[in-house]
Design a protein that fits this description.
3-stranded antiparallel sheet; about 75% helix; single chain; mainly alpha
Length: about 190
Amino acid sequence: MTKKRKDAGRSQPSLRHEWRAWAVEKKPVLLFTLKFGLLVALFYVFLAFPFGDRLLYRDLQFNARIADACLRLFGQHTRLVQDVVIQSPHFTMGIRRGCDGIEPAWLVCAAMLAFPAPWRKQLLGMVVATAILQLLNLVRILTLYVIGVYLPSFFNSAHLELWPTLFILAAILLFLRWKEHTLVQDQDPAVHA
C-alpha cells in the first residue's frame, strides 16, 4: 500500500468509531428510552397477574361509585348496578378496563421515573400528574354519560376517538410541563439558595 493510501485510511473515522461517538452522544436518550420501556413493560406484566387485575377492578369500582354519586348530585336518576355499571331510565354505561386513568397515569409516571431528576421532584410530579389524570377521567365518565343521554349518536366518537386523544395529549403535556419545570428549577441558582 502506498503512503497516500495509508494516510487517507487514517483520516477517515472507522464505522466502529462513528458508532461509538453516536452512542456516547445519544446515551441520555437511549437510557431514557430503555428505562421507560422497561417500566411500561413492568406495568403490563403486573396487570397480567390476577392481583393486578383485581386492583384494576377495584379502581373501576371506585370510578363508578364516584361518577354515580356526582351524577345523582347533578340531578340524574342513576344507580350503580353490578359494581361497575351506571344505570338510569335514559342510559346505561359500564365502566370497563380502559375506562380509567391508570394507564395514562402510569405512562406519565414511567416517563418521569426514566427522566434524570431528583426523587423528590419525580415523586411530586407523579402525585400531581396522577391526581390530574384521575380527575380528568372522572370528567370523561361524566361527560360520556351526558353525551349518551342527550347526544347518543355522538357517544361512540366521543368514547373511542375524542377522549382517548385528549388523554394522550394530557399525558404528554403533563410530562413536558413537569420536565420543563424540573429543568428550570435545576438551572436556577436562586432555587438552591
